[in-house]
């Protein structure tokens, strides 16, 4: 049996605290639990707390050691579509062009994006694309081709 009992919180080092805080609060509707301008913000969706720290000198990349991506669960494909529309309105960088079925992970539906510091975020649901209308995308291990 493991000596730990789940994740307490996830701490992210960001390049622009305000932009990252807005990503989580305005786009994903997280609540601000604690905030100190220019230093840190603690945000939560009610299940997961994320601490944002104004400490990064450069943007994130999946090809260096560290966080590959942060995956968050959403209730349905309909919620994913709402989030995707908000991201498009705010010109948030989407991977794979938007929502897709993760072929290599058994058909889960997901939306991959990059928050303002370049940290890769996956939003996923266990709801399946029964109608087979959503395109197949790379998934968690895929590297973005620019």
TrEMBL record:
Q: Where is the VOC domain?
A: 6-126
**The keyword Metal-binding is assigned to this record:** yes
Keyword Lyase carried by entry: no
SUPFAM superfamilies given in the database record? Glyoxalase/Bleomycin resistance protein/Dihydroxybiphenyl dioxygenase
Pfam families found in the cross-reference section? Glyoxalase
InterPro entries assigned to the protein according to its UniProt record, in alphabetical order:
Fosfomycin_Res_Enzymes, Glyas_Bleomycin-R_OHBP_Dase, Glyas_Fos-R_dOase_dom, VOC_core
Query: Mind listing the UniProt keywords for this protein, alphabetically?
Result: Metal-binding
What protein name applies here?
Answer: VOC family protein
* Species in which this protein is naturally found: Brevibacillus choshinensis
